[in-house]
């Protein structure tokens, strides 16, 4: 009998804890990081049906008002690129309650820039039966240099 490794156990925990994220729409700015907007596919705890979607909604970043993370100057000069994935606790009022680094870009300066920006973001809070609730979502920030 094979025991689960810590990684496999964490993946199982994450799969049960976080909403599944199926597709991403990339918003692009020249010379600035790209922010991927995540969309739930309905295969997780909330099934895709019109009645349930009206009752339960996942929290979503308000990309219309949230500032784009700044590309750190040192990272730009050294040609650093990468994707930072942050788990964000979204409070019932749409503010950020906590941020946890899920996946590093491999560069501390990019990770820090992503965290710094997202901590002040606003979100449309998740709802359950029409009432705003706390929830967690994963927000990817993709740092890509345009001048390659």
Could you give a short description of this structure?
The chain has helices at 6-17, 50-55, 73-78, 108-118; strands spanning 23-27, 34-39, 56-57, 60-61, 82-90, 96-103, 123-124, 126-128, 131-133, 135-143. It has 148 residues and is α+β, with helices and mostly antiparallel strands.
Structure, explained:
The protein has four helices and ten strands. The strands form three sheets. A five-stranded antiparallel β-sheet has the order 1-2-10-5-6, covered by helices on one side. The chain starts with 5 loop residues before the first helix and ends in a 5-residue tail after the last strand. It has a single domain, classed as TolA/TonB C-terminal domain, CATH 3.30.2420. A hairpin with a 2-residue loop joins β8 and β9. The chain has 148 residues and is α+β, with helices and mostly antiparallel strands.
Q: How many β-strands, per DSSP?
A: 10
Q: What proportion of the residues is helical, as a percent range?
A: 10-25%
Discrete helix count: 4
| β-sheet strand percentage | 25-35%
- CATH architecture title: 2-Layer Sandwich
| Poorly predicted tracts of residues | 1-32, 36-51
CATH superfamily: TonB
What attributes characterize this protein structure?
TolA/TonB C-terminal domain, elongated, 10 strands, three-stranded antiparallel sheet, five-stranded antiparallel sheet, alpha+beta, 148 residues, 4 helices, disordered N terminus
Helices and strands in order, then pairings?
Elements: H1 6-17, E1 23-27, E2 34-39, H2 50-55, E3 56-57, E4 60-61, H3 73-78, E5 82-90, E6 96-103, H4 108-118, E7 123-124, E8 126-128, E9 131-133, E10 135-143
Antiparallel strand pairs: 1-2, 2-10, 3-8, 4-7, 5-6, 5-10, 8-9
């Amino acid at each position: 009998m094979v025991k689960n490794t810590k990684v496999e156990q964490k993946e199982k925990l994450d799969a049960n804890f976080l909403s599944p994220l199926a597709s991403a729409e990339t918003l692009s700015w020249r010379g600035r990081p790209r922010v991927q907007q995540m969309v739930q596919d309905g295969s997780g705890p909330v099934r895709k049906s019109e009645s349930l979607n009206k009752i339960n909604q996942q929290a979503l970043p308000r990309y219309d008002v949230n500032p784009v993370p700044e590309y750190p100057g040192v990272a730009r000069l050294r040609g650093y690129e990468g994707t930072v994935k942050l788990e964000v606790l979204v409070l019932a009022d749409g503010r950020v309650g906590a941020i946890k680094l899920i996946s590093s870009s491999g560069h501390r300066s990019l990770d820090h820039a992503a965290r710094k920006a997202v901590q002040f973001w606003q979100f449309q809070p998740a709802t359950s039966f029409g009432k705003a609730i706390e929830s967690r979502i994963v927000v990817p920030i993709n740092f890509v240099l345009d001048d390659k």
